Amino acid sequence: ELGQPVRSLQRSLSNEETSLSELVRAVRVREACQLLEAGELSLTQIGFWCGFSDSAHFSRDFKKSLGMPPSVYRASSLG
Description:
Radius of gyration: 14 Å
Low-confidence stretches: none
Mean pLDDT: 91
Distance between the termini: 40 Å
Largest sheet: none
CATH superfamily: Homeodomain-like
Number of strands: 0
Order of helices and strands: HHHHH
Strand content: under 5%
């Protein structure tokens, strides 16, 4: 379905009560969760690896999505 015109994609996402930016954030946060659980990279590295422009943006979007900052998620997944 990603081969469709942008407007069609936006309409489809709207029907699902989401937006392209929310979908992108969800994919980035899901990838960040996997990297946080692996415990090998720093939070800054994970943020940049997942496409966030800076650490503050990564932390803000992660917390908005999961209700906790990435550092707390990492501690709970490793501990």
